[in-house]
Write a structure and sequence with these properties.
The protein has 458 residues and is α+β, with helices and mostly antiparallel strands. The chain has 13 helices and 18 strands.
């Protein structure tokens, strides 16, 4: 592989926005470029057609006695809008002050090139590397991976032959301190609509006679939390896995304080529930959040109406062992019971995803049947990150969701070693997304060391 920076620049130049059909050519270009990189590394690549964007499934398979890993990534990116807030055009990569700027630089094209560059170095030194590798690079992660379910229907048994998977689609606090992610939160997404009269009403003529849908929806939404911020839905917390003591110890090593976190967010105070600290709450606790609410007149000035309808967009982030289908049913039942009789309601089901949790080796609650290959991979990562970054990694749950990771576990039995390569200053999903070149160089060296250790070569 040529200079990894130049490879990444070329990859970024393809505007691979999966949610917008206008970017179909960019999607095809990014996919073809990733395919060519895999083929240069000696992989046999299958382009798996889907209802939307194809998936790259690539293999480098030798002896069945060799360790076998799956490396996951995605070639799609978030939309770059608003374009006027970018310092340079989002799909024309630029390098400034030790960072490469462009949409997808950190999420997830930069980490993908890190893996490939590390593998290229190892294969150059060890052409007969005794390691079976399967790549899965999808084109729909940024829209919830809708085609992956059908993909697992066809390929889960084949993927299950691997020992574990390697992922770098999670974060770390800064380029000097790497986090190995041990959990991802699950997701429940839905929309509540409340309807009253058949049309908007004059609030003077009809006010006081009908139940205002805006009032009704605000009352329903307010009922979903207790005064302390906890979720007021019967059974919501029944299956929550408690926080392990070793996780609290790891969090104490995290290079951020509650006060620095507050200042970064520019909020006057925090509101965590169930006795968790703010830094614990975003990792260890489930949530119910209102993402959007509306109804009635939204323009300048006033318009004295009682609106005919109102809506609220709601999501929950779930922790390990919470069943998203069960949680959704519990919330829907609570809404049914609390909806006033003067209005009607409807619920739109959105996406759901299960939470994921893996416990590193050597912890009191490490599963007794944890594969030895996964334990060796964690140990290899721990040593390589300490060697290349000068600090041992921190093992932490992450508050975000990558639904496909839980699917790999459920459908193919694969646990994940998740090594975070993007940081808060990288501006994921925002204008001026970037990726640290210093982190990139260290990460390539670390993954080179990890791959060699997994393959048991020196």
């Amino acid at each position: 592989m040529q200079n990894p920076l130049e490879v990444l620049k070329e990859y970024i130049r393809f505007p691979s926005v999966s949610t917008d059909p206008a970017y179909a050519e960019g999607m095809q270009g990014a996919r073809a470029y990733a395919q060519s990189l895999l083929e240069q590394l000696g992989f046999t690549v299958e382009v798996v057609e889907t209802a939307l964007h194809p998936i790259l499934l690539a293999d480098r398979i030798g002896s069945p006695d060799w360790p076998h890993i799956v490396i996951y990534g995605h070639y799609d990116v978030q939309p770059a809008d608003p374009f006027e807030l970018w310092s340079e055009p989002p799909f024309e990569p630029s390098v400034r002050a030790g960072r490469i700027y462009g949409r997808g630089a950190a999420d997830n094209k930069g980490p993908t090139i890190v893996h490939m560059a590390a593998l290229a170095r190892v294969l150059a030194a060890h052409p007969e590397l005794p390691l079976n590798i399967t790549y899965v690079i999808e084109g729909e992660e940024e829209i919830g991976s809708p085609s992956m379910s059908a993909f697992f229907d066809r390929y889960a048994e084949r993927l299950a032959q691997a020992d574990f998977m390697l992922v770098s689609d999670t974060g770390s606090p800064n380029p000097e301190q790497i986090v190995i992610t041990t959990a991802l939160r699950g997701l429940v997404d839905f929309e509540l609509k409340v309807r009253g009269p058949k049309g908007d009403l004059h609030s003077g003529i009809h006010g006081g006679a009908v139940y205002n849908p805006l009032q009704a929806i605000m009352e329903i939404c307010a009922s979903l939390h207790n005064p302390d911020g906890s979720v007021n839905v019967p059974g919501f917390y029944d299956d929550v896995v408690p926080v392990f003591e070793w996780e609290r110890a790891e969090l104490e090593r995290y290079p951020e304080t509650v006060e620095s976190y507050r200042q970064m967010l520019d909020v006057p105070a925090f509101f965590p529930a169930n006795g968790l600290s703010p830094l614990e709450a975003v990792r260890f606790g489930p949530t119910l959040e209102f993402n959007g609410i509306g109804g009635g007149y939204q323009g300048e000035g006033s318009k004295t109406v009682i609106p005919s309808a109102a809506f609220a967009k709601i999501t929950c982030r779930l922790v390990a062992n919470q069943d998203p289908i069960k949680i959704q049913q519990q919330i829907f039942e609570a809404i049914r019971e609390r909806c006033p009789q003067g209005v009607t309601f409807s619920l739109r089901d959105g996406g759901i995803a299960e939470a994921y949790l893996v416990v590193p080796p050597g912890r009191p609650n490490t599963p007794q049947d944890q594969p030895a290959s996964l334990a060796r991979a964690f140990q290899a990562a721990d040593a390589a990150i300490a060697d290349q970054f000068g600090k041992a990694p921190i093992y932490l749950r992450e508050g975000g969701s990558i639904p496909v990771i839980a699917d790999f576990k459920k459908r193919a039995g694969l646990d994940a070693l998740m090594i975070g390569l993007f940081t808060p200053v990288d501006n994921l999903h925002a204008p001026d997304e970037s990726f640290s070149l210093a982190l990139m160089d260290k990460a390539i060296a670390a993954f080179e060391q990890i791959i060699k250790k997994i393959a048991n070569v020196v």
